[in-house]
Amino acid sequence: MKSAGIIGVGLIGGSFGLALRKAGFEGPILGVSSARSIGEAVERGAIDRGVSLEEAGGVCDVLFLAQPISGILETLRKLDPLVKTDTLVTDAGSTKQAIVKEAERSLRRCAFLGGHPMAGKAERGVAAADADLFRGRPWVLTSDIDHPFRKWVAAFGACEIVLDAARHDRLVAWSSHLPQLASTALASLVGDRAPEAVAVAGPGLLDATRLAMSSFDLWRDILETNGREISVALDAYIEKLTALRSDLEGEFRKGGEFARSLRSRNWPPMNADKRG
Amino acid sequence: MKSAGIIGVGLIGGSFGLALRKAGFEGPILGVSSARSIGEAVERGAIDRGVSLEEAGGVCDVLFLAQPISGILETLRKLDPLVKTDTLVTDAGSTKQAIVKEAERSLRRCAFLGGHPMAGKAERGVAAADADLFRGRPWVLTSDIDHPFRKWVAAFGACEIVLDAARHDRLVAWSSHLPQLASTALASLVGDRAPEAVAVAGPGLLDATRLAMSSFDLWRDILETNGREISVALDAYIEKLTALRSDLEGEFRKGGEFARSLRSRNWPPMNADKRG
After folding, report:
1. Overall number of domains in chain B
2. pTM, 2 dp
3. Alpha carbon distance B33, B41 (integer Å)
4. Hey, are the CB atoms on A258 and B206 less than 8 Å from each other?
5. Based on the domain organization, do B68 and B205 belong to the same domain?
6. A59 and A158 both lie in a single domain
7. Do A249 and B275 touch (CB under 8 A)?
8. What does the pLDDT look like over B216-273, one tens digit per residue?
9. Which of A109, A239, A256, A234 is nearest to B248 (CA)?
10. pLDDT, tens digit, 9 for 90 and up, residues B69-80
11. How many whole angstroms separate alpha carbon A44 and alpha carbon A42?
12. Cα separation, A45 vs A6, whole angstroms
């Protein structure tokens, strides 16, 4: 891997550039993004310079697509004629089946490796980028092809997990998309029915509504590209809530066990509790 | 207020004793609790000594009932013959209607003021007690009777809010009890259906399942004494989740607005994000 191109230089793309540099990558890092993001990214040292997609495709060994899902799909549709045949195209999209399918359809001249670094922050944009954003966090890859790119993922301190696209999308429907909808629905409902509850809100309501601050801009694509799995999870949640009262003690026990098992992993707590 | 009695010297009772001392209270602070809690509370300076309920009733100007709700109800049933007529009995129970009703029925010889300091921690017991636990947090009172006790609440740095018992119970059904059940149901469900999600869990799932670690011991009484309001809130939540897909963008907007309005208050964030 001699040169890297980042398509979409926001929080994730910018952090990727900073992490590459911190891990010792010495080749050029080129960025394809809005003029404003390019300016900030160069200033922060996340990329060396902004280029067109054509130039990035003609130069880079690895292209990292870090746009919203619909942007990644669009880039994939026009990338094939632009890349070198030994290029690896990889991405950071939050759902994987639609992206992997588009890559299979459109990218015929080079290899593709679907990816999803499970990292984030409340803030968006390259201004919030952080060389350590991926440290200690899972980085899902949709296949285990042999490529030096994976050594850089390890060098960022991320924990590589190979999951095929369908299995990834099923898991994140439960671990990420359902919690988002549960939080959005709760915040919207309490806002409708008891807005005065603000006056007596405790830490529990803050935890439970933190995800509700997520932007729909980011979620629109996720909800559209993982609709079926999300519907299964949402229906099951409604069923669970409906049956909850028949065994409250058992549900508290099971919920507590799962919540504690989550926390017995090392990675997420610090990051979670640093957020706003 | 010359002497204070704390019935139930755990996290809240112990913090009350420490907060009184820190705020400059110089009279005796007596505790009624298990031998083990009394030992720890004396050592930490939260109380001066352990006494029987009879002795506390015969001596103290203010009795602070800081047991679980069922313990408070039991204490109220036997307290009347033990108190001085100028004593104020107050409490820290998480629901208020059952307690205020029991106080009206049982306490005929002295005044009662229902209370609910909206403060807590993941840890329990007097070992976790903290003189600043109430600082910047709401402290609900069920009436605005004139009594020096309220000056001490202010001296703790708490924000007094007068709400009648029914209104309190309705509000906390939305702000506290529904979020608890939503979190318990989510954690229990993900544990059932996708326990492997632990491997890809992000900060969102941690936020959304933090409440699920609450002990059912504390919640049994809350759920029993506020069952009707909780059912209304839970049914409305199920309805909201069922209708959610018809206007995802609107729900994200409304949920985000409420979540941000919660955070425009000064009190809870720091406390929330320090917890485990």
Report:
1. 2
2. 0.89
3. 10
4. no
5. no
6. yes
7. no
8. 998 999 999 999 999 999 999 999 999 999 999 999 999 999 999 998 865 433 333 3
9. A234
10. 999 999 999 999
11. 5
12. 13
